[in-house]
Amino acid sequence: MTINDHCGDPDTMKTLFIGNSYTQCNNLPGMVRDLASAAGKRLNTAEVTSGGKTLEWHWYNPETLETIAQAGWDFVVLQDHSLGAIEEPERLSKSAARLAGRIRQVNAAPVLYVTWARQHIPEMQDAITESYTRVAQEIDARLAPVGPAWRRALAAMPGLAMHVQDQSYPNI
Q1: Inter-axis angle of helices 89-105 and 124-139, to 10 degrees?
Q2: Strands 42-49 and 75-78
Q3: How far apart are CA 128 and CA 131, in angstroms?
Q4: Angle at 20 between CA 64 and CA 144, to 5 degrees
Q5: 28-67 tens-digit pLDDT
Q6: In angstroms, rounded to a whole number, what is the distance separating the alpha carbons of residues 79 and 92?
Q7: Is-contact 122 160, C-beta < 8 A?
Q8: pTM more than 0.90
């Protein structure tokens, strides 16, 4: 876990990111913190991430559960494996529900991080978004519609390099 702490300042929002390499890549929690700062807001971020992992893995990971329990989060952002919403939507649903229950026990709000389509398979975005939307409705969670935002950005600026060469990971 990495954390940027503001010593319990009540004017500082606290957000925990749980996920895998999509969340680790380009230091997403730090980028979100910097964007908040640029908007005049203070945001404390932390992450529990491990490459290639699913939310199911996080449910069984003691570090994930201990981190949820320890810090008085306002929001906990959940990012599943990039293909999980398509290949194993029921696993996503079950794992997100379990984690959301634990998140609510500490009076935080769960947020589902809707991932983006692979560059060479843009049509997969509909299935990803539908799966996350369904799960969010089932567990009464908020959505961070990252994938749909990517789609809009690419439609507005078709030459925009959103992916790196592997056609999966995000470009800075």
Answers
A1: 40
A2: unpaired
A3: 5
A4: 90
A5: 999 999 999 999 999 999 999 999 999 999 999 999 999 9
A6: 10
A7: no
A8: yes
Neighbours of 145 (CB within 10 A): 16
pLDDT over 70 at 168, yes or no: yes
Three-class secondary structure of residue 138 per DSSP: helix
Question: Bridge-partner residues for 18, per DSSP?
Answer: 48, 78
The pair of three-digit structure tokens given for residue 130, joined into one six-digit string:
């539908």
DSSP H or E stretch at residue 12: strand 12-19
The length of the chain in residues reads 172
Q: With 0-12 CB in 10 A as exposed, 13-18 as middle and 19+ as buried, what is 4?
A: middle
Instruction: Select from 57, 58, 170 the least CA-distant residue to 118.
Output: 170
CA proximity to 96, closest of 56, 134, 62, 145:
56
3-state secondary structure 73-137: CCEEEECCCCCHHHHCHHHHHHHHHHHHHHHHHCCCEEEEECCCCCCCCCCHHHHHHHHHHHHHH
Reference 73, options 103, 96, 98; nearest CA is 103
Within 10 Å of residue 31's Cβ, how many Cβ atoms? 12
Q: What percent of the chain has pLDDT over 90?
A: 92
